[in-house]
Amino acid sequence: MIKICNIQNSMQIQEYMDLLQYYHIPCYVKESGSGEYLKITTGLSLYGTDFYVQEKDQKKAKQALDVMRQKWDLREMQAGWSDNEEEKMEVKIPWYKNRVVTARLILIVFLFIFVFVGVSGIFF
Q1: What pairing do the DSSP bridges indicate for beta strands 2-7 and 27-31?
Q2: In DSSP terms, which residues pair with 49 in a beta bridge?
Q3: What are phi and psi for residue 35, nearest 5 degrees?
Q4: How far apart are CA 6 and CA 2, in angstroms?
Q5: Which residue has the higher pLDDT, 88 or 30?
Q6: 20 to 30 A from 46, CA-CA: which of 71, 92, 100, 115?
Q7: Cα separations in angstroms, 91 against 49, 59, 87, 95, 99
């Protein structure tokens, strides 16, 4: 078996496995270095995942993965993203669940009571 690539992204790992399976290329997937121990203890590997194929399928697998990498060009995908994507999304919540509105209403009620009691002279 020959190592053809190392992949860090778990989504790409599954896509590459599916792609190789689609082309009937048997592959062996193994965590790189001590990544298997890290994956067991922490749930993720810092070293990525290695893909191995048979020598006879190496050229076919590399061509298929190169086509997939062109489709998965991360720079193109991120070109339209902005860091404030979540901030731009507005979620409509009812007025009574909005903390600012609720605080203002409570303040208005207390001010109204204070002014009413002060004007009527009930406690003075």
Answers
A1: unpaired
A2: 7, 31
A3: -60, -30
A4: 12
A5: 30
A6: 71
A7: 39, 50, 10, 12, 14
